[in-house]
Amino acid sequence: MKRLNEEVFTQWFKGDSRSPLLIRGARQVGKSWITSVLGAQLARKVHVIDFELIPEARFAFDSPDPLKIIANLEVILGQKIESTNTLLFLDEIQLCPKAIVALRYFKEKMPALAVVAAGSLLEFTLKRNDFSFPVGRISFLFMKPMTFKEFLLATDEEPALRALTNATLSHPCSQSIHVKLLSLVQDYFQIGGMPAVVDSYAKSKSWLKAREIQSTLIQSYRLDFPKYAKQTQIEHLEKCFQKAPSLIGQTLKYVNFDRDARALNIKTALEQLEWAGLIHRVHSVTGDGLPLAAHAKDRPGKIILHDIGIMQASLGGPMTPSKDEDITGIYRGAIAEQFVGQELVALSPQYEPAWLAYWERSALNSQAEVDYVVIIDSKVIPLEVKSGKSGRLKSLHLFMQEKKTPLGLRVSSRPLELEGQILSVPFYMVSEIPRLL
Q: What stretch(es) of the chain map to CATH 3.40.50.300?
């Protein structure tokens, strides 16, 4: 399979002033894969230290000196670790916090050695009060589930991918291609972007096998809970993880997760799921200017899951959708909102965590909500998701009027077109929004 961030990884490896690369992201999104497979193509030799499989390797980092570290690792691996044209991969690095601290010194003392580190639960180590992160001298790459475009590549739909990447307002996709791409979007709604699921579906075209892998992933996430939560917190994590898929698109109320639990316990559980990369927070903002985070409201906001396929499997959604019906309307349109949010996460810079926002107004007799607020070329743009081909855009127009925004976005099943101040973007072209604008 091909990942669209392979170019970012390649540019890092070939860079003149390369820093150690810390890859972050949820479990099973491809962190180890891109390092092992792409690293093998770029480097003459790849040395892998998995702290879960080789726990004794942790003692090699008692000293932060890279020369001493490498000497110890050579003994453990039984191999010579050359400095040039070599990649050292430190996997599950959260199990060895001293190794995270030592990363910065590789830049200073062994700059020729390419060092990559990753860990599924890395964020919990970085959030610890007693952990001092080595600021500077480290690069970041945030891995996400496979996007719709990557899904098309993996399933041998390159002609469809070329069609959507070449479509413009003056030359949109033809009706036949439009229908085909919407059908493929519905496939992606079920399969999602977890690499193991996509790989299985691409090879077998079996919906049943894909769902089995999704169910296995869901169980593995649950088995991780004791690794980062106290026994008293696991129950709240289970409740939040179970309820989260059914609350996508809704303004959060902690009571909807568990009526008998304290709000603080639910808030903590949601934070932990966010650190694990299993959910993304969608922040409520005023939309008054940049940066959006400076105008965020002190509210729980909304959430989306990290992957739409995991959402469907958690909810027990249909495994073989009928192409004669628009499934985006199922679950009150939450599927459509999840898909758009996931594509927007993928559009965020790969060197920083994604930050999603939406707009709401709760004035007396004048409630309004816009699903997402995005920043394109330093401009605040409102985006409304419509599960069908039609739907009113009252809130979108209200935002544009109040904030004096010259353009609004509607994402739906409608073809690509510009109607006055509203740019209609079909689901399959969410990734093309920056280019279209």
A: 6-142
